[in-house]
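Input structure tokens:
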């Protein structure tokens, strides 16, 4: 006899059981909003990795893990009379309808908009609506609501994108490249001075400008760097295996030998 698939209601009940003061899980009972944040971030990164690998079976699994994080926070909110999953869903639907007037006529889910708008028009409306929402929260600065906890590269690009809304930006890629060369020259000068503070500051400026360059090239800096890191890992692992096949290790090889292996790895694996 087949069993009916579990539902959201079942998931909520499982979460209630896990947090039951008498019969729940000791670990789950110890958690609070702040303590599960690291797990939430880890689950999101695992989801991103599964998507990047096009491992869609595990994408579904990782989506479940991310959903569990939402349910966990909602259970904590319900226990403290702060909010519930119902209020989370309600707030989300209200926001999506409010931010998409080009889809939901008169603010109704089934409201049909007959005149189609361009992506540029939609972006302009989206930013205007978000600016209005920030003002309602007392956040009047253009950069006010950008989360500090964002990873450095995407946060840098988000800050730069916001600044570009008031034309504080380079017009084209060549200007950013020139700025990058300027920042690299300043880093060289800082290295010459041997001042740790100056080196740190100038290195940060180089990274910030590189993130800006990626944005101007319509690239996501975080994703681009992650791909290049994975490419380096594959080539390095090739070198390790090649060295082992020769009865040695990378650490025992000379710089010239390691460079030779690196070139072999690039030729064998290509630009992947």
């Amino acid at each position: 006899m087949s069993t009916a698939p579990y539902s959201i209601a079942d998931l909520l009940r499982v979460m209630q059981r896990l947090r039951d003061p008498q019969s729940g899980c000791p670990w789950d009972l110890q958690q609070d909003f702040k303590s599960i944040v690291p797990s939430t971030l880890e689950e999101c990164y695992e989801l991103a990795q599964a998507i990047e690998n096009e491992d869609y079976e595990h994408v579904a699994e990782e989506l479940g893990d991310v959903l569990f994080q939402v349910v966990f926070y909602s259970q904590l909110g319900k226990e403290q009379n702060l909010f519930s999953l119902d209020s989370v869903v309600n707030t989300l639907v209200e926001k999506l309808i409010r931010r998409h007037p080009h889809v939901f006529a008169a603010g109704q889910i089934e409201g049909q908009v007959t005149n189609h708008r361009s992506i540029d028009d939609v972006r302009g409306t989206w930013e205007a609506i978000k600016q209005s929402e920030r003002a309602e929260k007392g956040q009047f600065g253009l950069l006010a609501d950008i989360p500090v906890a964002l990873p450095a590269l995407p946060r840098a690009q988000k800050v730069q994108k916001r600044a570009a809304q008031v034309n504080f930006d380079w017009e084209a890629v060549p200007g950013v490249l020139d700025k990058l060369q300027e920042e690299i020259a300043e880093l060289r000068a800082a290295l010459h001075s041997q001042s740790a503070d100056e080196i740190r500051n100038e290195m940060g400026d180089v990274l910030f400008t590189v993130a800006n360059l990626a944005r101007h090239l319509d690239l996501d800096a975080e994703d681009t760097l992650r791909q290049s890191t994975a490419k380096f890992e594959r080539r390095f692992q090739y070198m390790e295996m090649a060295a082992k096949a020769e009865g040695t290790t990378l650490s025992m090889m000379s710089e010239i030998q390691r460079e030779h292996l690196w070139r072999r790895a690039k030729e064998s694996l290509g630009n992947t």
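The chain has a mean pLDDT of 93. The radius of gyration is 25 Å.
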